Each structure stands twice: as structure tokens, then as C-alpha cells.
């Protein structure tokens, strides 16, 4: 009877995860038709084919000074380091499923971990297959490629990717946040080192070093105290994933707003304090603080930094201009998320004019957008010194982020509520 009851419990947990995954897909997928109707699909297709043409031209004739080593280390590290884990947990699970914690780890977490490992391996192998033609043809790596069998190298990178996912799971189990950070930094550092060594050193040196790094990480796991199942961490990660999906879909269609957890960001949150301290600027202050401490700012900052780095290292001015245009376009769409900020219900009782809310959101979006336009344009000018190219791009960016997107954000509709 006990075995039958346990098997029934395991079956319930498996079906629970499958039903939640299916419910999430059914919630998200129908909105994609609006995404494609907006023209984003056509835009993404144009970017894809442009990159494809560039890639084909590159592997036909790799330039002498093309940094194949650094590019290979960067792209393969990014592919292997990513270690997401979709659990579809909900806040109440830490109460109602706690009594089945052992069974949850076996029937719920283990399939999720296995799926994450498979996805990481396939993603890394796909990136590796794209990089191999460049690795074998680039002048600075062609000699190295001769001593690295492609199949064996692919297997080793697949192992690195799978181990990263499992290591990410062990990091989540650490009880202290500081220890999780230490474990993550150690994993990232050692993984990048392993990727670099596999690409640039003989395998007789690279494989033993790879095993040594894996042993170091395993020993680090034994230092911190651990949870049997990190409920709170997994629930927070799942909520963050849902917020990111909803924020992306919110650029194109109205979707339910997911509550977000504010970040302190003391290094930038003080900027909101420069708002004029008077009643008419109350909404500006609220939106500035909500933006600087919210998830939108984090994504916006990362996107700006990434675009700036790409523009700085791109020697082709036309390619840098395309990157600039794409960055400004997507940055403006990210800022449109300010329109969907919702405050607590008691905000309706505050004696401030509700009609000024969207105007304030548009003003904050304009300030952030023009800052991005100025910074990325300045990077482009300093790296190429071709004002005849960058000044028109600068003007176009200011029109998009300084006029068009704020105008769309400030436009009132009957569905807008405090």
C-alpha cells in the first residue's frame, strides 16, 4: 500500500508540472500573433537574414585581423554559462507541497533539471557548430584547429554546458545569498577558463585542467550549508521569468501585469531625488523611482551596455549604424513598459491629478531614451569620427526616443487606471 501511495504521489507531481507547463504555453503563445502583426516578426526576419549573409561572407574569407580567439571564447562561454531552471512553482507551493519535499525533488525537479541540461547542451552545440567554420578558417586559429578534433571538442563543450546547469542547481541550494554569489562567480570564472583552454591549448593540457576545475567546483559545494529544496529561490526565479515574458509581450499587446520586486540600486536610485520637490512633480518622482528600482531599468541598462560594446568593437561604420538603430528601436520599446506601471490601490486617495500620470511617465521615458541616444551616439562618433554618418542617426534616435515613444506613452485611453 505504501508503494502504491508513493507511486500515486509521484504521478501526481509529474502531471502537475506537465499541466503547469502546458498552461504557461497556452497563456503565452496566443499573444505571439499580435507580436508578428506588429511588424516585429518582419523586423526580426530582416535582422536574421542580414546576419546570415554577413556570416556566409565571413566564413568565405575571414580577415587576417579578425579576433577569432576572443569571439570564440565569448560566444561559447555565453552559451555554456546560462543555467536556467523552469519549475513553474507558485508562491503557495512552499506550503502545500512542503510535506512532499522528497517526492518533489524526485518527480518534479529532476525532470526539470534534465530538460534544462538537454537544452543547454543543444544550445551550446548549435553555437559551436556555427563557430567551427570560422575557427578552422581564421588565420589566428587555423593551426589550433588542426590539433582539435571537431567531434571531441563538441563533446567537451557539451559536457561543460551540462555541468553548468547542474552547478547552477547546486548554487540555488546554498542557504546564504553571499555564498550563492561566491559559487556563481567561481563557476563563471572556471567555465570561461575551461572554454579558453579547450579552444587555445592542446587537449592533453585542456582536459586535465577541465577535470581539475570540475573538482574545485565540487569541493566548493561542500562548504556552504544547503537547503534540501530552495523553495523561495525557485519561486522568485519563476516569478521573474513570468515578468520578463509579460514585459516583452506588453510591448505589443495588453497582458496582465505581473508584480515585480524592487531593487535597491543605491548607485543610481539617488538620481530621482533631483526632481523638483513640489506637488506638480509628484508623478514624475514616483515614475522615476519606479523606473530606477524596477526590472525595466535593469534590462534597459544591460541592453545599452551591450549595444555600446558592439558599436565600439565594430570596425564597419555601416554595421555599427545598424546596431545603433536596432538598439534605439528596442530601447524605446523597453521604455514603453513605463506606461504599464501600476501603483498600489491607495494611490487613488493621494491628492494629485490622475490625468498627469501618463504625461509624467512619458517625461521619464524621454529622459532615459535621450540619454541612451546620446551615449550610444557619442560612442559611435568617438570610435569612427564620421559625423556625416552619426549625426543623422543621432537625429533619428532623438525623434524616436524623444518624441514618438513619449507621445505614445502619454496618449490616454479609456483602459488606463491608476
Automatic annotation (TrEMBL):
Q: Which UniProt keywords apply?
A: Membrane, Transmembrane, Transmembrane helix
**Membrane-traversing stretches:** 34-56, 68-85, 115-135, 147-169, 205-223, 303-330, 358-382
Q: Which InterPro entries match?
A: EcsB_ABC
Q: What cellular-component terms does GO give this entry?
A: membrane
Q: Keyword Membrane, does the record have it?
A: yes
Superkingdom is Bacteria
User: Does the record bear tRNA processing in its keywords?
Assistant: no
Question: Pfam families per the record?
Answer: EcsB
Its name, as the record gives it, is ABC-2 type transport system permease protein
Amino acid at each position: 500500500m505504501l508503494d502504491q501511495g508513493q507511486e500515486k504521489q509521484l504521478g501526481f507531481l509529474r502531471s502537475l508540472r506537465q499541466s503547469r507547463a502546458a498552461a504557461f504555453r497556452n497563456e503565452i503563445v496566443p499573444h505571439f500573433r499580435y507580436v508578428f502583426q506588429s511588424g516585429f516578426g518582419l523586423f526580426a526576419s530582416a535582422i536574421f537574414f542580414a546576419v546570415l549573409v554577413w556570416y556566409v561572407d565571413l566564413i568565405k574569407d575571414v580577415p587576417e585581423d579578425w579576433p577569432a580567439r576572443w569571439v570564440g571564447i565569448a560566444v561559447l562561454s555565453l552559451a555554456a554559462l546560462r543555467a536556467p531552471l523552469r519549475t513553474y512553482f507558485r508562491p503557495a507551493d512552499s506550503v502545500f507541497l512542503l510535506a512532499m519535499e522528497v517526492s518533489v525533488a524526485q518527480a518534479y525537479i529532476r525532470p526539470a533539471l534534465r530538460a534544462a541540461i538537454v537544452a543547454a547542451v543543444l544550445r551550446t552545440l548549435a553555437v559551436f557548430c556555427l563557430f567551427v567554420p570560422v575557427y578552422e578558417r581564421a588565420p589566428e586559429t587555423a593551426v589550433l584547429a588542426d590539433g582539435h578534433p571537431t567531434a571531441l571538442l563538441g563533446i567537451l563543450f557539451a559536457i561543460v554546458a551540462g555541468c553548468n546547469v547542474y552547478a547552477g542547481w547546486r548554487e540555488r541550494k546554498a542557504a546564504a545569498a553571499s555564498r550563492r554569489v561566491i559559487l556563481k562567480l567561481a563557476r563563471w570564472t572556471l567555465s570561461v577558463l575551461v572554454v579558453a583552454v579547450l579552444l587555445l591549448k592542446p587537449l592533453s593540457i585542456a582536459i586535465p585542467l577541465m577535470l581539475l576545475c570540475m573538482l574545485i567546483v565540487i569541493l566548493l559545494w561542500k562548504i556552504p550549508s544547503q537547503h534540501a529544496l530552495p523553495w523561495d529561490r525557485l519561486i522568485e526565479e519563476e516569478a521573474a521569468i513570468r515578468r520578463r515574458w509579460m514585459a516583452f509581450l506588453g510591448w505589443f499587446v495588453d497582458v496582465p501585469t505581473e508584480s515585480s520586486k524592487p531593487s535597491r540600486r543605491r548607485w543610481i536610485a539617488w538620481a530621482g531625488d533631483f526632481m523638483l520637490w513640489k506637488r506638480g512633480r509628484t508623478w514624475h518622482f514616483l515614475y522615476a523611482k519606479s523606473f530606477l528600482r524596477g526590472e525595466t531599468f535593469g534590462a534597459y541598462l544591460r541592453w545599452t551596455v551591450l549595444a555600446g560594446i558592439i558599436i565600439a568593437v565594430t570596425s564597419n561604420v555601416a554595421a555599427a549604424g545598424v546596431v545603433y538603430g536596432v538598439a534605439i528601436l528596442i530601447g524605446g520599446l523597453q521604455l514603453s513598459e513605463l506606461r504599464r506601471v501600476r501603483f498600489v490601490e491607495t494611490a487613488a486617495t493621494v491628492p494629485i491629478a490622475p490625468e498627469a500620470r501618463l504625461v509624467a511617465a512619458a517625461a521619464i521615458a524621454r529622459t532615459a531614451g535621450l540619454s541612451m541616444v546620446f551615449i550610444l551616439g557619442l560612442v559611435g562618433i568617438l570610435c569612427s569620427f564620421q559625423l556625416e554618418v552619426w549625426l543623422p542617426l543621432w537625429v533619428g534616435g532623438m525623434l524616436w526616443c524623444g518624441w514618438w515613444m513619449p507621445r505614445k506613452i502619454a496618449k490616454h485611453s479609456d483602459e488606463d487606471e491608476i
